[in-house]
Amino acid sequence: MSVITPNSPSQRWLTPIIIFMAVAAAAALGWAVISIASPTIITVVVVGLVLAVLTVVRAEFGLALLVLINYTRVSDTLIKYQGFPSVAKPLVALLVVTVLIHWLLYKEPPRGWDKPLILIGFYTLVSYASLLFASDQATASTAFSDLLDDVIIAMLIVLLMQRFQSIRVVVWSLLVSGTFIAAISVYQYITGQFTNAFGGFGQAAIMNIVGESNDYRIQGTFGSPNSYAQVLVVLVPLAFDRLLNERRLLARFAAGFALVTVVLTIIFTFSRSGFLALAVVAFLTLLHYRPKLETLLIGLALAAALVLFMPAQYSERLSTLTSFLPGSTSSAQSEVSFRGRINEYAVGFLMFADYPFLGVGLKNYPANYLEYSPRVGIDPRREQRAPHSLYIEVAAEQGILGVLAFALILIAVFRGTARAARQFGEMGLRRVQSMTSALSIGMIGYLTASFFVHGSYPRPFWLLVGILLSVANVAAQEYRIFHSQQTGRAPFDLSISIAQTYEQE
Question: Which residue from 92, 104, 255, 271 lies 20 to 30 Å from 483 (Cα-Cα)?
Fold first, then answer.
């Protein structure tokens, strides 16, 4: 969506809309001053009204806010720790209104939303059908309601990301949101302020490290070190890409700062799944970008410096990963967490075997765990457990239809982004092509960690799905225009010209 300008075809609507919003803002501000005693809340109201006006005038601004607020659970954290009302829900409503304003009044209908709607809609329908077999209907219904919120946000991203410029906006929004909480985590770990939650943005808890040893693990805003590391891994290739390809020195410095803080935070989570995902992402990033020798040497020196910040027990915890290697003298079953994971995976397969078509119901794996666990007999703990794998979770709770719907989304994501990267390259948009590849590698990192992390916090996943489907959609739509221009069948397109100018600077 473009910026509303005085030359817009429906310019006559602009003045009445702004006047109406100004009057509404003044009325709301007056009510806040009279009715609310808290200066903090009044400040939030004022800032919210300003952001609302900016969002309607420039939809990409609202898109950036949507990513910032939801990728790192800012809204949920403010609700839980500060007692704020939901920030995300009013923003979603405002963005829906913004889409309608641009669509109906400014004749800018969103393009290419039908295929993502079919893919996401199919998965949603399968999830709803799985409720038929749920033994814990209350949990299943709540989970489905949360899923609806997530897929609505994913589709909203598809509706908002319509031009080249929005891709860079989203990439930097992801980096800013992740760097914000990662910087807090790094400061928290270095200073040892683990009991200070930093307003909910710096959660930490004493958890098992290795064997009988326990220590603090960083959790950020997620309350889970593994989920936190999983979300941050996505940002590593994005930061590396911006470090290499941004034009301005300040932007490159910001990207470098993001890269360092994110990698350190992943280490401070002590997450083995996060480490494996980081290793995969690092390998794919180096393979794709093939940095110059001097850049590689600087990177190695930086990595060596980061080792100085590595916790004493980190390497010891990672060494337990060798328990699964052939010929290992240690037994995987001697490690408590490994033994539990094996039991949980086996239970998931048993659930899938008993309910192959639609599973045991959305988020009903824990409710059925104690019934199946004795049949496996590896883990003696008599307590509800999670599946600790997104793929086993989908199979156990939504059956073969859920697996199929999930696989179709991932196939569309990676086929679409691969095609998009090729199309951006043909249009001469190398920087946009590079960002597309970085997003794909980030998603691979997220899915790698998903082998060992279930969907406790699924919203980042759906945000990424919406973003990657949008990137493919933008490339397809703009390539069609570009190709028509090349053959003289379409008029000059300003968006493509702006993007090409950015490439040449």
Answer: 104
| 102 in a structural domain | yes
Percent of residues, the chain, with pLDDT higher than 70: 80
Higher pLDDT, 299 or 472: 472
The tens digit of pLDDT for each residue in 75-114 reads 889 888 888 878 888 889 889 988 888 788 777 888 999 9
Does residue 333 carry a pLDDT above 80? Answer: no
| Distance in angstroms (rounded) separating the CA atoms of residues 344 and 392 | 9
Q: Which two tokens stand for residue 341?
A: 């994971």
Q: What is the distance in angstroms between the CA of the first residue and the CA of the last residue of the chain? A: 24
Residue among 102, 154, 178 nearest 409 (CA):
154
Contacts 24+ apart (CB under 8 A), 20-27: 21/52, 21/53, 21/56, 22/53, 25/49, 25/50, 25/52, 25/53
| 3-class DSSP assignment, residue 216 | strand
Spatial separation of the C-alpha atoms in residues 114 and 213, rounded to whole Å: 52
Q: What is the model's pLDDT at position 13?
A: 52
The pair of three-digit structure tokens given for residue 493, joined into one six-digit string: 């397109």
Please identify which residue in the block is written with the tokens 């001697």: 334
Residue 468 lies in a domain: no
d(CA 440, CA 160): 20
- Whole-number Å distance between alpha carbons of 493 and 497: 7
Residues 385, 88, 61: CA angle, nearest 5 degrees: 130
Predicted confidence at residue 369, as pLDDT, reads 94
Q: How far apart are CA 325 and CA 408, in angstroms?
A: 32
Rounded distance, CA 185 to CA 164, Å?
33
Asked, for residue 90, whether it belongs to a domain, the answer is: yes
pTM for the complete prediction?
A: 0.87
Contact 202/195 with Cβ under 8 angstroms?
no
* Per-position DSSP letters for 289-322, written without gaps between them: H---HHHHHHHHHHHHHHHTTS-TTHHHHHHGGG
Print the domain residue range for 30: 1-109
Number of neighbours of residue 481 by Cβ within 10 angstroms: 17
CA-to-CA distance for 171 and 437, rounded, in angstroms? 12
The rounded distance, in Å, linking the Cα atoms of 453 and 251 is 33
pLDDT at residue 289 in the model: 86
Q: How many domains does the chain have?
A: 1
| The pLDDT value given to residue 29 | 46
Examine residue 423 and state whether it is found in any structural domain, yes or no: no
Look at 121-130, 141-150, 330-339 and tell me which has the smallest mean pLDDT.
Answer: 330-339
Q: For the residues of 78-106, what is the DSSP string, one character each? A: HHHHH-PPPSHHHHHHHHHHHHHIIIIIS
